[in-house]
Predict the structure.
Amino acid sequence: MVKIGIPRALSYYKYFPLWKAFFLNLGAEVVVSPPTKKRMLDLGSRYVVDEVCLPVKVYFGHVNYLKDKVDFLFTPRVVSVEKGQYSCPKFLGIPDMLKNIDNLPPLIGPTVDLTKKDRTVFNTVYEVGKMLSQNKYRISMAWFQAVKSQAKFTQQWLAQSFPQELKAPRVPKEKSHLNVCVIGHEYILFDSFLSMNLLEKLANLNITVFTSEMLSRKVINNELRDYPKKIFWDFARDSLGAAYYYSKQEDIAGFINISSFGCGPDSMSNSMIMHYLKTCGNKPLLNLVIDEHTGEAGLNTRIEAFYDLLRRKAV
Ligand code: SF4
């Protein structure tokens, strides 16, 4: 059976159910790298320049882990999945940067760019599927199942729960008395190494978490409809739309914004979120910027201080 490796990083956290179901339905075995460890980050950092953000360094660590264990490595170049919206340039450059790693297995690296006229979804899907089957009907059926799996994943988000695949606590064991909106890329938030178990820490403090993924595209776009300029980085658009939406919800006590040092899009969206919440939102914000040197003790202190502030405001 052909083994396809999927690094547990970056777009894994958004599209894993889709690609997993697709490959399984084409008869392949899917091998996912294990949760991030410090050693993976150290190894990944060797292949990229220092300035690259932490999530990309971690991605390279996962690739390094998988490279001797699989027949193919799945590393798509995600340019755009929606008209007028683009992924960050570091995302786009990953297939090129991978050339720095020796002895990689063959890559399955389709370009996902739905702004191109000749690049329909099925063209992209067929390009990937034909590496495993020459039967167009079989590829179509595998894609059909894949879309169903992804829709189920999205539904769990929209029902305001964390999808089971992410294995993260959202609701505290006791009945929550504080709701907090946490803004951050899924690949930081749900990677417990990168986020230093932020979600678990919040659940232990009796806090229920709300995120941008729980909002539909329609809600996000509606929030930003009067924004003077279109935000074309997709993550930045989601973060800002979530800040706008949740700041108007009375039961949201505050915001935590977590991002990586060296992130271009977040350097812009962080400022926009801070400015908005300061001038219009009237809700406390804890801004966490992480890098290789962030200490967990310092993070804990900041979270606890923020929690105390929220509780004082709540009484
Ligand atoms: S959006 Fe930011 S954190 Fe994500 S890959 Fe790009 S630079 Fe890195």
The chain is about 45% helix and 15% strand.
